[in-house]
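hi! just following up on the protien thing from before. the input was this:
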Amino acid sequence: MGRRRLIKTTVADASRDLISPLPVEIKHRILECLPTQDAARTALLSNHWNDVWLQHGRLAFDCDFTYSVDEGHDDEGRTLVDIINDILLSRAGPVKKFTLGINNYYPELRQSDFNRWCLFLSRNGVEELNIGFFNRDTDYKLPFCILSCPTIKQLSVDVTSIDLPVNNVGGIFSNVTSLFFQAVEFRRTVNGTASSISIPNLERLNFLDCVGITKFEISASKLEMLSVRNSVHDVVDSRWLTPHLKAIKALWLCDSSLPYMDASLFATAINLQVLGLDDLSFGSENQLAVVMQLLQKCPNLCELGIMADQAVCKRDIEAASSLLEDLDGCFIVQDLKMLNTIKIESFNGSTNEMLFVKLLLSNSPALEKVVIMEYHYIDRSVAVRSQRELLRFPRASPKAQIICMEHDRSMLGWAMGELWSIGALM
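and the predicted 3d structure came back as:
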């Protein structure tokens, strides 16, 4: 009798469903932690889980998803386009977050398919949209329905083209707070002057390796963070940047922008707290002069991060003494009273780099930390000599600490990533 009761209890325990009674909100959180292909499979558990899946509003057709399709894991032999169509058209609720990451060439994916997905999302409450075509041979255009979608708050676009309306004073990106564009070509719908675009709620704006960003002017009164990197196809000059300097709190520029700027014309960047400089050549008199002028315009700067460009700096490491004499007149003439942290990556110990750090140390009374990550190919004897010299430099701040670190590939870009603590642009 006892044995029979034990067997009965064990069977009941084994068949007990501990997940289905959970609140619907918890079940949606569970699906959010699963890849889309696994989240879709929960629909097979029961009708109740099927309802949860059909109302699930966070879909990610990313590289893992497309890899699963490429490996033939779809039992019905459907194409990628078929699968995405089926999942989207079966939605019983809004799609709040949508990610599309295509890293291979799919001949069946046409512009019309992409347009249809975008139109569906724009009509179904999408708030966060991430689009990436990582195969550089593709040429997809972002449909206008996405530019004019009133529900989108965060938009990230990689490897597409965008046709911009001319002199649009409203109606596009109306509620967007964050824009990230990578390898995007901006085009005007008609020839003429640069487009004027008003984005009233924009707080974060990031351009990486884009083309045509100077074809339009942005009005964004709430903009706090701006990043323009690898704009090799455009002259991002002072006039394009000046309207944003008074309000922004974080700015990231690269070497291709600096030579075309006259920082002496900039208004005082009274709110700028974080400044990042990518691929800065310490062997370029022009770039260093602009940087020094820019620092003069940032009285409340707290964090400065630099990625040095050694491909250029190495050739100019034995620069003529006249270069340093010319630069000396461009260096800081007033204290950076709020500067707290300096981070320099790919440091090679060149004369110009050492002078740059020395001048910052002597003009930063609030400085607490200087982090130096060495260049990967630096000679060890040079590294040791540079460290000793750095530690002997006079410091305006008694709290200033100098931390030197060897290059670590696993930490490549760490300084820049950590730099944006006020609000990440990446």
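The chain has 15 helices and 17 strands.
The first helix runs from residue 2 to 15.
cheers
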